[in-house]
Structures are given as structure tokens and as C-alpha cells.
TrEMBL record:
GO terms for biological process: Golgi to vacuole transport; intra-Golgi vesicle-mediated transport; intracellular protein transport; macroautophagy; retrograde transport, endosome to Golgi; vesicle fusion with Golgi apparatus. This is Vesicle transport through interaction with t-SNAREs homolog 1A. One of its GO terms (cellular component) is Golgi membrane. Residues 34-94 form a coiled coil.
Amino acid sequence: MASLLQNFEQQYSAVTADITFNIGRISNTTGAEKQNHVRQAEKLFEEASELLEQMELEVKEQDSKDRQKYQTRIKSYKAELNKQQADMKRARLGIDANRDELLGDDTHDSEDQRVRLLDNTERVERSSRKLDQGYRIAVETEEIGSQIMEDLHSQRQTIQRSRGRLHDMDTTLGKSSRVLSGMMKRIIQNRIMLLGIGLIILVTVILAIYFMARRR
């Protein structure tokens, strides 16, 4: 556990060093380059916060002595991270931290106002991004729904055509069945007629033979 915490601490030190570097670059750059360093710093802040959370979870598994020691360290890490976040806000606003310390309270209120304004702007930007994302999801959902409706309509037409063909086949089969039934009836009638004729011929022959025999 201790080695894992030490690994987290080393990673945290490297991340905070990168944050400090990016804050310095924010102060010394402008435009797109400045915004690029701001985005990098924000990602590093997220990474640092995740490392602190992982450290807090691991500290809970330590014995009471080590737990107290690491909890104190984590508190100092959080304080350091908060200070770096304040430094980055000042860097984004173009405020010199050393000049601010020298001027003292005269500029403190103005800086707080600018920091609050920046916080509000960031919240508005995040809300705007969330709204844009929600709008894109809604549009994609609508497109998917339209595609599904088109597919269902196409399938409905296919089913209707299939039903029409089945109906036509039933009608055709019905007609064929009636024709076959008529043919069978005629065949039976013909066979009965032939049988009757055959019986008549047979009776006639028998009678002829009988009368000829009596004459002799």
C-alpha cells in the first residue's frame, strides 16, 4: 500500500510541476497559444484531483499511524492545488501575483471581482457547451427517429404488398379449385355415362344370345 501511495505522490508531483509550467506559459503568451496552455492546465488539474482521490482511498487502508501522516500530506497537496488554481486564474486575467502582493488590499477587491467574473464566464461556457451537446443529441435522436419511421413505413408498405399478393394467390387458388372441381364432376359424369352405356350393351348382347338360343 505504501509503495502505491508513493507512486501516486510521484505522479502528483510531476503533474503539479507541469501545471506550474503551463501557468507560467499562460502569463507569457497570448491568443490561441495562451488558450492552448489554459486547456492543458485544466486537464492537468483534473488529473491531479483524480490522483488525490485515489490517494484518499488508499489512505483508508493504512493503519492509524500512517493514515494520519498521509492525511496531513493530502491536506497540504489540496492547499497547494487550490493555490495553483488561483494562480492560473490570475494568469488568465493577466494579473501579476508579485505586484498584487506589493499593492495589497487596494487591488484585492478588484482582483476578486475579476476572478468571480472569470468563474461566471467559465460556468456560462460550460453551460453553453452542455446545451450544445444536448442540442446535438436531440438532433441525432430526431434523425434516428425519422429514419426509424421511414423504415417502419417501408416495412408497412412491404407487408401490405405481401398481403395483396397473398390475397391474389388465394383468389387464383379459389378459381383453380372451382375449375378442378368442375372438371372432376364432368369426369365422374362421363364415367357414369360410359358405365351405363356399357351395361346397356352388355344387357343387349345377353338378350340377343338368349333369344338366339331359344330359336334353335
